[in-house]
Design brief:
Layout (H helix, E strand, L loop, with lengths): L29 H13 L3 H12 L4 E3 L4 H4 L3 H13 L3 E6 L2 E6 L3 H10 L6
Antiparallel strand pairs: 1-3, 2-3
Helix pairs in contact: 2-4
């Protein structure tokens, strides 16, 4: 199995002449800050980052929970707990098929996270 690197690029501030761009667009908006904090909290655990990467790299872009326990070396209930946190954060989608749950990336979720980190606030 291969893994896919998840990367974020820094914004190009050469056009604006700014030395430092804000880290988050709409940082003053409490709802945006809460949503971002939930995603960062979900990604604050190395196991969850690893699970997200495994799902992203899995054939067809989805993986059964039964295929995720061995790579992270944890029991199925623990893996399911980590996956639930990723689902609640809006990063993964869960689909029940019989007795197994299948997980896939939410389309655009990682791109939206990257955009929220790299877009600069409008100039005043």
């Amino acid at each position: 199995m291969t893994t896919t690197a998840l990367t974020l690029e820094a914004p190009d501030t050469s056009a604006t002449g700014a030395c430092c761009a804000p880290l988050v667009r709409d940082a003053a908006d409490p709802e945006t800050a809460r949503d971002l904090a939930r995603v960062f909290k979900a990604l604050g655990d190395p196991t969850r980052v690893q699970l997200l990467s495994i799902v992203a790299a899995h054939d067809g872009g989805e993986a059964c929970v039964c295929d995720l326990t061995e790579p992270v070396g944890l029991a199925q209930p623990t893996v399911s707990h980590h996956l639930k946190i990723l689902v609640d954060a809006g990063l993964l989608h869960r689909e029940q098929r019989g007795r197994w749950a299948y997980y896939s990336l939410v389309p655009g979720a990682l791109g939206q996270l990257a955009t929220s980190l790299t877009e600069t606030a409008p100039s005043s």
